[in-house]
Structure formats: C-alpha cells, structure tokens
Design goal:
This protein is α/β, with parallel strands linked by helices. 30% of the residues lie in helices and 14% in strands. It has one domain: Rossmann fold. It has eight helices and six strands; from the N terminus they run E-H-E-H-E-H-E-H-H-E-H-E-H-H. Helix 2 packs antiparallel against helix 8.
C-alpha cells in the first residue's frame, strides 16, 4: 500500500506456513482485536533462512494461505517473498515494506511473534534493526505473561525501555515499542499436521476444510 493510502497499525505476520493451520489463524485474529490493527498482512517465506527446507513449494504454501485467509476482511496476503531469489529474512522484508510505494516510513508496522520466537531474536539476521522498522507484538498464554527476567540478557537490555502496556501506543509512532497480548492456546503445530497427513490420519478441525481439500487434490505431504 503506497505511503498515505493507510496509516493505521498494520500487523505483519511472516512464516513458513507449511501448512497454514488454525493456530496461525487464531494468532492473527486475536492480535488484530487486541492491538486494534487495521489489517494483518500475511507474508509466506519463499526460502526460510532459519528452518529446514519446506516440504512443499513456496507457490503451494502461498495458495494455502490465500485459501485460509480469503473469508476474513482483516487479512491480506503479500506474495513478494515467495518469488524472491534470496532467503527470507525479516529485516529486509520490513525494509521493503518501508519503501514509499509500499507502506512508507510513517505507518505503524507491528511484527507478530510467538513468545519462543521473541526469545530467540538474538539469533536472527540483523535483529537489532527490527526496532527501527516495526513494533514487536508478542503472543503469550492467557494468565502466563511474558517473563522479562527469563529473556536472554542481550535481548532484555535492548528491550528494557521499549515495553508498553497500552496497545494504543502503537498508533502513535511507526516503530520501536514492544507489547504483549494473550492468545488462546491451540495445541496445533505444522510438524504434527504433517505427521498426521503422512500417516493417513485425520487433520479435520486442525486446518480449514478448503486447505485440507487443496492438500488432498495436490497430494501434498505424501500420504498412503
């Protein structure tokens, strides 16, 4: 979206989505509500840099994300990383979104993360640059807030003056704050979904039906 076309906080939700499941969908939905986001932009990684190679093609993962998000007006899908020739790193992705013909420099961007991913930030490519490009929103279990004392020392020091308790503060600046929000816990993982598919077991109620239909139609995640 070009600069000036929209200035409300935009959630950024990147991932491998191999495959996309209800845990992903619920995180994006609850983040939108808790943080008053004007939209959540899903960005499937083309070549994930910190994970094993995906089991299916980038185009297939993109297609599944589009199917899963199609009925939610809050969600939008960015296909740019799927066709990129380079590995998908978060900082270059955010730098792309900050270009004038994308979101520009003024719109608040809110990077959505799970608590485990947040704690692992010191292992990310150019991770200190994240705070100049976006706010960080960290999902945690209801009743179990993020324990700052348990964070790696380097991360805790870097975030010490960035935490805010009021999500409304995200709208007042384009980047630099850290906020947490409670997310309903769903015991779903893409790894478990792939194992169930490979063994021919049911994945109903773990993924949207249209994603299951796509997987079956294209014979993804080798099944008996």
């Amino acid at each position: 979206m070009p600069e000036g076309a929209g200035d409300g906080p935009l959630g950024i939700f990147g991932g491998t989505f191999d495959p996309v499941h209800y845990g992903h969908l619920r995180l994006a939905e609850e983040a939108g509500s808790a943080l008053a986001l004007t939209a959540v932009r899903w960005i499937p990684a083309g070549q994930p840099a910190l994970r094993d190679a995906p089991r299916v093609t980038a185009g297939q993962r993109l297609a599944m994300v589009r199917l899963a998000t199609a009925d939610n007006p809050l969600f939008e899908v960015d296909a740019s990383e799927v066709t990129a020739a380079r590995p998908s790193y978060t900082v270059p992705t955010l730098e792309r979104l900050r270009l004038p013909d994308q979101c520009g420099g003024r719109r608040p961007l809110v990077l959505l993360l799970g608590a485990d991913a947040f704690a692992g930030l010191p292992g990310w490519h150019r991770w200190q640059s994240l705070f100049a490009l976006a706010h960080l929103a960290v999902a945690h279990r209801p009743g179990f807030p993020l324990e700052r004392a348990q964070l790696p020392p380097e991360l805790a020091e870097h975030c010490r003056d960035r935490f805010c308790s009021n999500p409304a503060e995200l709208a007042s600046s384009p980047a630099g704050r850290v906020v947490t929000f409670a997310m309903t816990q769903l015991a779903i993982s893409a790894t478990r979904v792939r194992r169930l598919l490979a063994s021919g077991e049911s994945v109903r109620y773990l993924l949207p039906d249209r994603v299951i239909a796509y997987i079956r139609r294209h014979r993804l995640y080798p099944q008996p």
